[in-house]
Amino acid sequence: MTASETSGVVTIANTGTGTVSVPVTVPPGTTVSRPASLQAYGGALSNWLSVPGSSSQTLTEKVAPAITTASSANSILGTAFSFTVTSTGTPAPKLTRTGKLPRGITFTASSNGTATLSGTPTAPGSYPVTFTARNSAGTISQAFTLTVATPPASAAQHRRPWQAAGKHAVSARYGIHRHHPR
Prior knowledge:
Blueprint: E1 2-6, E2 9-14, E3 20-26, E4 31-32, E5 39-41, E6 44-51, E7 55-60, E8 63-67, E9 72-76, E10 81-90, E11 94-98, E12 105-109, E13 114-119, E14 125-135, E15 138-149
Parallel strand pairs: 9-15
Antiparallel strand pairs: 1-2, 2-7, 3-6, 4-7, 5-6, 8-10, 10-13, 11-14, 12-13, 14-15
């Protein structure tokens, strides 16, 4: 008999030939790979789990979601931007967004508990949105603000009209030249 755990999934394997009953205590929301009569006991599910010879049982713990991303990000108007929203939980949470994003920025959710804000913002300002992570163990939301700043003024914006890019103003001195007879 062996037991192993990987990412919230516990596998109990019976390498023998006869059926073995194993005492199991798991958190509420855990699912069992086969029908089992686990009953409530002290806030957790407890019972004997029957594992036939040369087989295994898996217990998948359901873990409530958590959003693990920063609550704000900054971008520059007219500049490509990308930000990854991350979450944890088992099963992997589905991420959604409510609230207005700047023109040019999109929200794309993946099935692995992540989402991406990406694109090139075309409007400056502060954009408050809410991210929500949801799975069968629960739901959680987080406030988030994307700030789109106007790019800093560059030297090109401060040229005088008669100064072309890449050229310099030239001043000339004019003087009076005397002709001296020889």
